[in-house]
Amino acid sequence: MRTGSRISPYLYILPALIIVICFRTVPILASFTASFADYDIGGFHGFVGFSNYERMFTDARFWNSVSNTVFFVLGVVPAGIAIPLVLAMLLRGELRGKAIYRTIYFLPVVTSAVAVSVVWTWLFKPEAGPINGVITALGGDPLMWLREPRGIFEMILSPLGIKPEGITAGPSLALVSLMIVSVWKSIGYNTVLFLAGLENIPRTYYEAADLDGAGKWGTFRHVTWPLLSPTTFYVLIMSTIASFQTFALVYVMTPPPGGGPLGTTNVIVFYLFQKAFDRFDIGYASAISVFLFVVLLGLTIVQRRVGEKRVHYS
Amino acid sequence: MKSAQLLKQALLLVGGIIMLMPFLWMVSTSLEQGGLKNYVEAWNRVPFGTYFLNTLFVTGLTLIGVLITSSLAAYSFGTMEYPGRDKLFLLFLSTMMVPQPVYLAPSYVILAKLGWVDTYLALIVPWTTNVFSIFLLRQHFMTLPKSLYEAARLDGCSRFGYLWRVALPLSKSVIATIMLFNVIGSWNSFMWPLVVTHSEKLRVLQVGLSYFNQEQSSNYQLLMAASTFSVLPLLLLFLLAQKHLVASYSRSGLKG
User: Fold this and answer.
1) What confidence category does residue B256 fall into, taking pLDDT thresholds of 50, 70 and 90?
2) Contact at 8 Å (CB) between A277 and A114?
3) How would DSSP label each residue in A148-213?
């Protein structure tokens, strides 16, 4: 009986522990190990030191996927903060139809990325798609959207006679289209987070600002924005981490083998996927995984450092 | 003041229409040239019935697994004291820091070694525990007063009996949150089933829809019909449980 109760706490965690070890801890450690190995379709061929990493750092396609990912993050994250912040400011307090708006804005969050991608592929279709339909009806020129490899800065500036090249040409319109979908899908979630953040700001601050005669902008600038900063920071880090891992949108909207027109939507997780499952180059794919992990871990650490005292779970 | 309210409403309305537009276009395109017949045709063109059943089966069994393993583990982590507890909990939490794509390739190799590739086991077993669910439930169990436990034990309740008859019934709200997060997660999961299954009889809805999209890329009516019926179950669930769900999302700050 006494031994029974001494080991029983361990028995309670045993089922979860087995799963966690077999399908989380072991593969995670294996990912690190495999990144130092020559491991392909034929199996394990021995350890090769840092050669997978050397290959990665000299692989132009890898760096292309990194720059596409960075473009994606830099596009999605600011828009995914600004729009939800405005919406949350509009939705706060007593408002007619508040519940309906919240429902509508939240719908894309629970909708699967695959279905969302299928629908937006149709919306973006260059020939018959509704978006180009609207543009031509308004007298504009139809765009290639998901099939456009040219960078958007290049597209905007070339009529002016300026021709930016390489990285200065910016993300391709195809990648920008993916960003639009990604922002649309996450607006509702971030709005809900901002709404919760706004509700946590004590009313007394607003009363004080009112007494001081601060205008609307002054109140936002000196009360709302600073007091909302823990939420803003949390949204910033979480959407950065999520955007770094984009896969389904790329896979479905700019389908394999390409990764978009001229590889311009090939983001890091998509590239990792191609290496691991098209080529079965597990060793190399693992080196890319480790790179991704280090980047995301860095972001998580920043979040903990800066946000630890301010972001709390209720 | 009144015009400010009007402007607010106008902005929200325009925003709402933009957010809804893709859904409206999805449904209206699905009904073009043939109306509801498009739905029947899409459903029969590829075995969507099988995909639905597979998704339901996988989602259901995964959920049962998560509920069992999470309640047991959270009960142990949250209410018992024993050597190594905090280290073990840290081991669990540390796996939450590593996103799925990072260990996808080695997971596949492990499944291949187990002979599980292209089986239901591969779709279900690795996801029958969810560390975030354990975390949520543990936090809740820790708030239950110790006196409650002692009183129950004095009344002859066994250790497991306390979990089953006292702690879990007091955790309905957290359990509902866990159920919603896990159902949404399994239903929408794409990368994992794409990688670990190949045969059509094991195909889940998201993978089936993505292949359907590649095969029928110019047949919009059918594609939109298929998209509509694949998002419908979760949208219904969302509309039914939205109050609880939105509150859960905003409290826990985690995407499903």
Assistant:
1) very low
2) no
3) --SBHHHHHHGGGT----GGGG-SBHHHHHHHHHHHHHHHHHHHHHHHHHHHTS-HHHHHHHHHTT
Tokens representing B222?
Answer: 């059918």
Contacts of A20 in chain B (CB under 8 A): 91-92, 95, 129, 131
Nearest to B105 among A10, A103, A282 (CB): A282
B164 part of contact set with chain A, CB < 8 Å: no
Query: What digits encode the pLDDT tens for the residues A38-51?
Result: 998 888 899 999 99
- CB under 8 Å to A17, separation ≥6 — which residues? B73, B88, B92
Tell me the helix, strand and coil percentages in chain B, rounded to 5: 80, 0, 20
Sign of CA dihedral A48, A53, A59, A65: positive
Cβ-nearest to A314 among B70, B134, B251: B251
Contacts of residue B3, defined as CB under 8 A and 6 or more positions apart, other chains included, come to none
Q: Is pLDDT larger for residue A311 or for residue B88?
A: B88
The ipTM (two decimal places) reads: 0.93
Q: How far, in Å, CA of A38 to CA of A293, rounded? A: 20
**Residue B96: other Cβ atoms inside 10 A:** 15
B36 touches chain A (CB under 8 A): no
List beta partners, residue A43.
A40
CA distance A93 to A103: 16
Say how far apart CA B180 and CA B248 lie, in whole Å: 9
Domains of chain A: 53-306 (1.10.3720.10)
Q: Please calculate the CA angle B123-B124-B126 and round it to the nearest 5 degrees.
A: 95
Domains of chain B from N-terminus onward: 27-252 (1.10.3720.10)
Let me know: does B174 contact B137? Beta carbons within 8 Å: yes
What would the two tokens of residue A228 be? Answer: 């909302």
Cα gap B43→B52, rounded to integer Å: 10
| CB proximity B24 to A under 8 Å | no
Tens of pLDDT, residue by residue over B195-205, are 999 999 999 99
Give the containing element (helix H, strand E) for B163. none
Residue among A199, A181, A212, A31 nearest B22 (CA): A181
Closest residue of chain A to B123, computed from CA coordinates: A23
Residues pairing with A44 in the sheet: A39
